[in-house]
Write a structure and sequence with these properties.
The chain contains 3 helices and no strands. Helix 1 packs across helix 3. The longest helix has 15 residues.
């Protein structure tokens, strides 16, 4: 038997946000969806959205202001 690998929800949210950026044609400097809009679109908690946005910001993929 293989051990079950734990996957953080925020990792899935990071992937979903990246897909949304590409699919909706966002470019650098464009205003992105709010936390509330992302919560509704992705059906996850705001804390998961915030954590994912922090991950993306630290890796230089988005700028949060």
């Amino acid at each position: 038997m293989k051990p079950i690998k734990k996957v953080r929800l925020s990792d899935g949210v990071v992937a979903a946000i990246k897909e949304t950026i590409a699919a909706d044609g966002f470019k650098p400097g464009d205003k992105f969806y709010s936390e509330n809009e992302l919560t509704k679109k992705l059906q996850v908690s705001r804390s998961s959205i915030r954590e994912a946005l922090r991950i993306l910001e630290v890796t230089g993929q988005v700028t949060v202001s």
